């Protein structure tokens, strides 16, 4: 990999992480204006599906989906698109953006436990240390003895979003044994939109329309403008730029860059919706990230599928 190639890959990956960081504050603005998580998630995913529809049409002509490919798209759309976003927005009803993001980034820890159970092989010592450090950080993020009360239902939704991210980690996103990454993403957006439409019609994810404007950075913003930012800036843009960065970088390098989403998310939440975690929660977040870094360092140097990357 040349230096120029590495720099360009890092630039694409950082753009993706920064754009993902805006999803929490923009979603929180919708929720605070009275819009339900189910409707907010549906609008986000359906809007992104429309934006990426031309990509889907072109790629389907070049790479028709076979049975296994269609099943991967279905699973990805339901769990790693609709499931992750819905659980994340549900968590935002009870938690700050920063805390919800940190819980979502516990996915690498959950994957270690899953691999341990599946293979019956004890992880390396540094991996176990990383898990312990991350779990200690989780305790500080929850801060049960602090002035801010963190509701357990919010923690549950945050961990559920991490489980959805695990599904994304475990799905091969490209190569000869699956659909190309951009086809997987664009098709899964459609699947996610359909799934959320069905759950909404059944009353599982209620649709509640809130106020016509929401507060963002101290100003009143009309909901169509806010939605356009959520769809284009915080969903379609980071998915596409993330894929470009992934294809130009080593998987583990891209994974490290993905961790910066938490910092971008906390900064965006501070600037746009005035949410600042406590000092103890900042320390907990630092421990969670440190634990994940230790886990990443302990990974074997076996080739990894490009889909094994973090996303929100």
Structure in a nutshell:
With 312 residues, the chain is mostly helical. It has helices at 3-21, 23-32, 37-51, 53-62, 67-91, 97-104, 107-119, 125-142, 152-170, 181-201, 223-248, 251-258, 260-273, 279-297, and strands at residues 213-216, 219-222.
C-alpha end-to-end distance: 28 Å
Most strands sheet: 2 strands, antiparallel
What is the arithmetic mean of pLDDT?
82
Order of helices and strands: HHHHHHHHHHEEHHHH
Number of domains: 1
Total helix count?
Answer: 14
**How is the largest sheet built, in terms of strand order?**
1-2
Structural category: mainly alpha
- pLDDT under 50 segments (min length 5)? 172-176, 301-312
Helix content: over 70%
Compute the gyration radius: what is it? 19 Å
- Report the β-strand fraction as a percent range: under 5%
Globally, the shape reads globular
Tell me how many strands there are: 2
Structure description:
- The chain is an all-alpha fold and 312 residues long.
- The protein has one domain (3-297).
- 72% of the residues lie in helices and 3% in strands.
- It is built from 14 helices and two strands; from the N terminus they run H-H-H-H-H-H-H-H-H-H-E-E-H-H-H-H.
- It has helices at residues 3-21, 23-32, 37-51, 53-62, 67-91, 97-104, 107-119, 125-142, 152-170, 181-201, 223-248, 251-258, 260-273, 279-297, and strands at residues 213-216, 219-222.
- A two-stranded antiparallel sheet has the order 1-2.
- Helix 6 packs antiparallel against helix 13 and helix 8 (125-142) runs antiparallel to helix 14 (279-297).
- The radius of gyration is 19 Å and the shape is globular.
- The model is unreliable at 172-176 and 301-312 (pLDDT under 50).
């Amino acid at each position: 990999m040349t230096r120029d190639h590495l720099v360009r890959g890092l630039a694409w990956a950082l753009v993706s992480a920064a754009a993902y960081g805006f999803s929490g504050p923009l979603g929180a603005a919708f929720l605070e204006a009275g819009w339900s998580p189910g409707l907010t998630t549906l609008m986000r995913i359906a809007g992104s599906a429309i934006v990426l529809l031309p990509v889907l049409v072109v790629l389907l002509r070049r790479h028709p989906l076979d049975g296994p490919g269609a099943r991967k798209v279905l699973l990805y759309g339901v769990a790693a698109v609709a499931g992750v976003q819905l659980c994340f927005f549900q968590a935002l009803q009870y938690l700050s953006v920063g805390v919800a993001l940190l819980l979502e980034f516990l996915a690498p820890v959950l994957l270690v436990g899953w691999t341990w159970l599946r293979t019956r092989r004890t992880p390396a010592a540094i991996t176990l240390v990383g898990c312990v450090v991350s779990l200690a950080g989780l305790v500080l993020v929850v801060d049960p003895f602090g002035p801010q009360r963190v509701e357990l239902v919010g923690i549950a939704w945050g961990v559920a979003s991490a489980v959805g991210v695990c599904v994304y980690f475990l799905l091969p996103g490209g190569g000869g044994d699956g659909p190309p990454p951009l086809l997987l993403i664009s098709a899964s957006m459609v699947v996610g939109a359909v799934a959320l439409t069905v759950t909404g019609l059944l009353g599982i994810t209620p649709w509640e329309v809130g106020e016509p404007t929401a507060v963002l950075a101290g100003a009143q913003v009309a909901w169509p403008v806010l939605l356009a930012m959520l769809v284009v800036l915080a969903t379609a843009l980071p998915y596409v730029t993330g894929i470009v960065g992934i294809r130009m970088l080593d998987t583990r390098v891209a994974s490290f860059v993905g961790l910066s989403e938490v910092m971008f998310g906390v900064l965006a939440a501070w600037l746009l919706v005035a949410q600042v975690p406590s000092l103890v929660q900042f320390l907990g977040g630092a421990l969670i990230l440190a634990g994940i870094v230790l886990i990443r360092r302990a990974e074997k140097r076996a080739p990894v599928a490009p889909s094994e990357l973090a996303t929100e």
